[in-house]
Recover the amino acids of this structure.
């Protein structure tokens, strides 16, 4: 078996603190360059293939927009009209795509670890766009970028991840990244939706959100991942909302400057009420906007590291 492509992005767990910082500082420079009307054609001549075996709105579109903003080409692979439907395997599918066109694959799949398996077979880099309940590294990076943008720094901040932690790839990637950047992370939710041993992830945990909210700088609310549960692990969504939902009364316990994130899609009235999702603490749509910028930084680093390095020394230094 071959080693994975050396510059694939498969997990946040494997990222070093300096690599995370590099992605965040590149994102900041890209944001400034775009604001100033500068073009950043670092993917000129490069084709990025989006292979989404699970549904997506934000991640797929933001990878597409990010590629286009860097002057690259995008191919969106349509699972339902492909020869996967005739029984072709996933590995044969990606080997054929590699033979035809792609310089980089962005992969989302319901099986945890599938991007790692593909990376061992391919010569081109892979970016994990979410694999089962395992990881969603670019979501972790964009959440970190958003927190740093809004609060100035992540070091020393108290961050709560609330909800269905056990089935959440976002929670896992967030924990790895935020802890490496010096945050104190706590998870909170029903006992059946917390991982069996939260301390092993280096986080605190609580079953009641009210005891954590007054000290929190950031709350990351998560959707109940019904698609990853064999059977319902809470009595009902109404019961979940009553005890753990972020609503107006609970938000009153937060500091004025605390922020609320959610990776989306949000279920209004379940894990978050509409007035909170649209209220003054919410930075949910800023996360979505930042997703494009962060994915530009990731694509540039992975598809054209030399070009990015040169841009950072010249254009990036002047934006
Ligand atoms: N946050 C996220 O992964 O959203 P999508 O499923 O819409 O891509």
């Amino acid at each position: 078996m071959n080693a994975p492509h050396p510059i694939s992005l498969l997990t946040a767990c494997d990222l070093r603190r300096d690599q995370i910082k590099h992605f965040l500082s590149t994102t900041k420079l890209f944001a400034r360059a775009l604001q100033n009307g500068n073009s950043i054609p670092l993917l000129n001549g490069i084709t990025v293939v989006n292979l989404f075996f699970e549904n997506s709105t934000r991640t797929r579109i933001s990878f597409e927009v990010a590629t286009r903003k860097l002057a690259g080409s995008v191919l969106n692979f349509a699972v339902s009209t492909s020869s996967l439907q005739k029984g072709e395997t996933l590995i044969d599918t990606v080997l054929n795509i590699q033979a035809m066109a792609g310089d980089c694959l962005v992969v989302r799949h319901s099986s945890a670890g599938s991007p790692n398996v593909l990376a061992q077979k391919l010569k081109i880099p892979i970016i994990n766009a979410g694999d089962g309940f395992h990881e969603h590294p670019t979501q972790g990076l964009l959440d970190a970028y958003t927190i740093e943008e809004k609060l100035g720094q992540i070091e020393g901040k108290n961050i709560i991840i609330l909800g269905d932690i056990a089935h959440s790839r976002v929670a896992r990637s967030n924990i790895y990244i935020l802890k490496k950047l010096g945050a104190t992370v706590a998870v909170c939710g029903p006992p059946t939706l917390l991982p069996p041993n939260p301390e092993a992830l280096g986080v605190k945990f609580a079953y009641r959100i009210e005891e954590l909210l007054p000290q929190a700088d950031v709350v990351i609310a998560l959707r109940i991942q019904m698609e990853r549960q064999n059977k319902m692990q809470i009595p009902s969504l109404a019961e979940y909302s009553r005890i753990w939902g972020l609503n107006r009364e609970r938000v009153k316990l937060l500091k004025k400057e605390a922020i609320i994130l959610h990776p989306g899609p949000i279920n209004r009235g379940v894990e978050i009420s509409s007035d909170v999702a649209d209220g003054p603490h919410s930075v949910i749509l800023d996360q979505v906007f930042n997703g494009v910028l962060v994915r530009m930084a990731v694509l540039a680093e992975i598809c054209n590291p030399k070009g990015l390095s040169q841009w950072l020394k010249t254009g990036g230094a002047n934006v």
The chain has a mean pLDDT of 94.
